[in-house]
Amino acid sequence: MCMTLKIDQVTKRFGQFTAVDELSIEIPEKQIFGFLGSNGAGKTTTFRMILGLIDATEGNINWHGEPIDYSRTDQIGYLPEERGLYPKLKVKDQIIYLGRLRGMDKSSILSALNQWLERFNITEYLDKKVEELSKGNQQKIQFISAVIHEPKLLILDEPFSGLDPVNVELLKKAVIQLKEQGTTIVFSSHQMGTVEELCEYLCIMQKGKPIVHGSLKEVKRSFGKKNLIIHAEFDLKFLENESGVLGYREIPEGCVLQVESEDVSQTLLNVIQGKGFVRKFALEEPSLNDIFIEKVGESYA
Amino acid sequence: MRKFWVVLSQSYMTRLKSKSFLITTALFMGFILLAGQLDVIFSWFEGDDETQVVAVQDETDQTFDELELFIEESGAPFELEAFDEGLEEGQSAVLDEEYEGFLMIRPDDESYFVANYYTDQLINQSVQDQLMNALQQVRTLWATEAAGIDQEILEEIYEPVMFETVPIESDDGTTARSQEELSVARGLVYVMLFVLYFAVITYGNMIAMDIANEKSSRVMEILISSSSPVGQMFAKIIGIGLLGLTQIGLFILVGFYTIESQQDELVGGFFEVFGFQDVPVSTYVYAVVFFLLGYFLYATLSAMLGSLVSRMEEVNQLMMPVILLIVAAFMLSMFGINLPESSVITITSFIPFFSPLVMFLRVGLLEVPIWEIGLSIGILILSIGILAVIGARVYRGGVLMYGKGTSLKDFKRALTMSKKD
């Protein structure tokens, strides 16, 4: 695994307020890296620092061994959280301008643009003004503007927010394909499902600090706790007080337990033996959502 | 550098092709063309007017003929008509709009005659004035004749005095500006003042608007992640500056054409109408230099302020001080055009925001030592540099900053935002 984007002990303070606090992350090449965190956790600030839009108060960010400056922006794609295009410009002129700012020439921009429009099934928008497009379609255009120059490093700030499920799928596929073509992708989201689906590596940030970070498998393993799903035809309420059980949630068919470790499940299996009919007894990895809520919740307390 | 050109041509071309720009330019050019043809337009309407007639009842029986002669000589736009139906009839004829007015001349023992002019409109004084002049001439004629003075002697008396101002040559061979040169320079200064004033207000505002637009539509973050904000700021300033030159160039071209096309009626060509042919080349060079420096100074300031606002509506509010500055500079120079040697003008010709106008005025109207011009230009360039450095930093931070206020606090926030340490 080759570490290409290295965030080293980075702190960013705005006056008294600390937006990012001693963040150290290494983002592997040609992978999808997810940034999670509640609002104001410092994700956007981190992205802006990676891009060199604002400077870190302390620490360094290096990509291929050097900080990112304007000599290398042609290799970087950025989809900002606040979407923005020129409302009065036609889609074509817009993408041509933004593409030229990324060092492309007009003819290659146009051929790439047509391919992307076809892919998103919006070829008819080529000569439309951006303000005439729906929000979802504007977002697609915005996405195209971020990837048109085939960047080596792609930063997507909340790429899927505000899209319908069909378009989310469309965009996900595009992201996965870009990764397969060798693009390193960093993205932020608060949609846990998407992160779980796309990312091999992730980092959960809270108040500027990384509270969990590593590969998805590792994160889940080191979390330790597992989910135990039991569907049974008798009351399972008594399991709440068993040792090793951390959480209890009732569902129509039975309950979902959070258990301290795998071993607890076997004890519980013995406990419910003979109590009645058990339809389902399943030990599952915790979802990212569980981890997020638990970790972020902890730091709130 | 390539991206610099991309931004530059984008800000130039999109504006150039925009409908609002095309329409205002066309309107303005039409206006200039129309203004050039004003006399033609006036003549269309004048043709329809009936010749004005003033009724004259001459009770001295000897004034009318001579009066009519003098009126004709003076080329007054009305005719006289003898009238003998009395005051009442005359007045009602005026009210019926048969006549422009009614002039009653009665004999007088001491003063040859007494004239009363009856009219229903007092706004237009030109008829009265011309009648009075003509009557004065009649009276002078009679009085001199009565005194036995010959007409020729009279003409000699009124011969204008021979008076000429001769500039004294100084040791280095230069002379003070002659009267013609001065009025010419004054004309050039006027033109320059208006052009710079117009340019700063229009294009300064355009720059601030452009930046505020990119901020409010949030496209700015993509732009500054693609190329350096400072480069973008200057590309924008120069791009819009070129746009301004295009527009002003078009206006001058139309003005030039208008005057050339009327060359038969007017004496000489374009440059003579404004009396520009006598102006030394250096004055033109200074005009261009001060225009460009003035534009850059105000444009940089506008760009900096534009980067502080987050919404278009706030632009005007923030541009207010800039406009006040240029208005103050404009007023100063208007005052200075008649008193170029006053100490206020001398001092303000070194103060950055005033100097482009005021120093040019001094250069145009006076003999200013070269070191003073150099000093003024130096201060100007230095302050553009300082403003550019501050502006670039504010811009860098300001474009990422969104808030509702527009205050000094924002200015500081923008500076901390872009801080390196």
UniProtKB/TrEMBL annotation, chain A:
Keywords in alphabetical order: ATP-binding, Nucleotide-binding, Transport
Family annotation (PROSITE patterns): ABC_TRANSPORTER_1, ABC_TRANSPORTER_2
MF term (GO), any: ATP binding
Superkingdom of origin organism: Bacteria
Gene3D superfamilies referenced in this protein's UniProt entry, alphabetically: P-loop containing nucleotide triphosphate hydrolases
InterPro entries linked to this entry: AAA+_ATPase, ABC_transporter-like_ATP-bd, ABC_transporter-like_CS, ABC_Transporter_VariousFunc, DrrA1/2-like_C, P-loop_NTPase
Span of the signal peptide: none
Coiled coil: none
Domain spans labelled ABC transporter: 5-232
PANTHER family named in the record: ABC TRANSPORTER ATP-BINDING PROTEIN ALBC-RELATED (PTHR42939)
Name under which the protein is recorded: ABC-2 type transport system ATP-binding protein
Source organism of this protein record: Pelagirhabdus alkalitolerans
From TrEMBL, chain B:
TM region positions: 21-45, 188-212, 233-259, 284-306, 318-337, 343-361, 373-395
Keywords: Cell membrane, Membrane, Transmembrane, Transmembrane helix
Example of a GO cellular component annotation carried by this entry: plasma membrane
Top-level taxonomic group: Bacteria
Membrane topology: Multi-pass membrane protein
Principal cellular location given in the protein's record: membrane
Record carries keyword Membrane: yes
A molecular function GO annotation: ABC-type transporter activity
Compartments reported by the entry: Cell membrane
Domain ABC-2 type transporter transmembrane intervals: 19-392
InterPro entries attached to this UniProt entry: ABC-2_transporter_component, ABC2_TM
Record's protein name: ABC-2 type transport system permease protein
Organism: Pelagirhabdus alkalitolerans
Lineage, highest ranks first: Bacteria, Bacillati, Bacillota, Bacilli, Bacillales
